[in-house]
Write a structure and sequence with these properties.
By secondary structure, this protein is mostly helical. It has one domain: A middle domain of Talin 1 (Up-down Bundle). One of its GO terms (molecular function) is potassium:proton antiporter activity. Pfam families: Na_Ca_ex.
Length: 361
């Protein structure tokens, strides 16, 4: 008997529509406490609904295009949040893009990867994946991270984390080109490097959605993305006040933004790891980190060059050490093609150190 095509859950249709209702109320009655709370709930629901629709589209087009769709969708949310918050503020927000991109790298490489390895190892003892795909992703990630987050501290006209317009343009173009080459390798030239073995996973062989459902999800995905951007603009002042009242550094705002947009995709990666599809988990996780740098930096660079506004990219010496340690441990972890709970625990310990030092510098 032929499999029936899945249908969209009602909540994934209702969430973005209700988000727009809440958004209208928040703009009509700015500062209303109840509407601010509802806006926060609507924002979270819209993010989850958006990623669900991205998964539907991904299931329709297959792997590894599916994980690429999820990564790009999440990055569009991240870029929109960063640009909207930075443009609505003054020069004090010049480092928000840097803080958010660095947070995304740390949360992905140590948080999502660590949880996936830990949960997958607890359930399956040992898991395997394609070394060639993971190594390619890590090589690109190391290059993008170094050029975008570390080099600005050493190539500026005046010592510091800012770049001139020409240097910023070069950083943006080089990031976009390198990410584009990676996508070409992932989806065309060496697609087999990133394919998972789903032989033991029944869910991976579920009937794909119909063309009509995939098209509906594509439209609803765009509705979710726009709603997330506008709701974030409503909530950003509240988040900043909460961070300042808690006595935490302003860079914590970047961690909040990165965590918000990465949470749904992180849950999808963990589900794949528990289903013994670690390759899919790594595609999701590392793809998000690569898209975060490869798409965010060029977009923000273009906007700020056009508006002739300062942009801070270089991270601190402490964060440089954390980044170098993360890339080193990731190389060792993903260099054998097999993982256990030990590697997961190591990555989570690095995540704990990053979060602690971010809140208590």
């Amino acid at each position: 008997m032929a499999s029936t095509s899945p249908v969209l859950p009602r909540w994934t249709i209702a969430a973005p529509l209700l988000a727009w209702v809440v958004l209208g109320g928040a703009y009509a009655l700015p500062g209303n406490g109840l509407l601010v709370a509802l806006a926060a709930i609507a924002l979270g629901c819209s993010v989850f609904a958006g990623v669900h629709h991205a998964e539907v589209v991904a299931h329709r087009i297959g792997e590894p295009f599916g994980t690429l769709v999820l990564a790009v969708a999440v990055t569009v949310i991240e870029v929109a949040l960063i640009v909207s918050v930075m443009l609505s503020a003054g020069p004090e927000k010049a480092g928000l893009a840097r803080d958010t991109v660095f947070a995304a790298v740390m949360l992905v490489c140590n948080g999502i990867v660590g949880v996936c390895l830990l949960f997958g190892g607890l359930r399956h003892r040992e898991q395997g994946f394609q070394i060639r795909g993971a190594s390619a992703a890590l090589a690109v990630l190391a290059s993008l991270s170094g050029l975008s987050l570390v080099m600005p501290n050493y190539i500026s006209v005046t010592l510091g984390p800012a770049l001139t317009a020409s240097q910023l343009a070069f950083a943006g173009v080089s990031s976009l080109v390198l990410y584009g080459v990676f996508v070409f390798v992932q989806t065309v030239r060496h697609r087999d490097y990133f394919l998972a073995d789903d032989a033991g996973d029944e869910n991976a062989h579920a009937a794909p959605p119909s063309a009509r459902i995939a098209l509906t999800s594509s439209v609803l995905l765009m509705v979710c993305l726009v709603a997330v951007v506008l709701l974030a603009k409503v909530l950003s002042p509240v988040v900043e006040r909460a961070v300042l009242e808690a006595g935490a550094p302003i860079a914590v705002v970047g961690i909040v933004i990165a965590a918000l947009v990465l949470l749904p995709e992180g849950l999808a990666a963990v589900r794949a790891a528990r289903a013994n599809r670690l390759q899919t988990s790594l595609n999701l996780a590392l793809g998000s980190a690569l898209a975060s740098i490869g798409l965010t930096i060029p977009t923000v660079a273009l906007v700020f060059i056009w508006m002739n506004r300062p942009l801070t990219l270089g991270i601190t010496g402490r964060d440089t050490v954390l980044l170098a340690l993360t890339l080193l441990i990731s190389t060792l972890t993903l260099g054998t093609g097999r993982t256990t709970i030990l590697q997961g625990a190591v990555h989570l310990s690095l995540l704990a150190a990053y979060l602690f030092l971010s809140f208590v510098p």
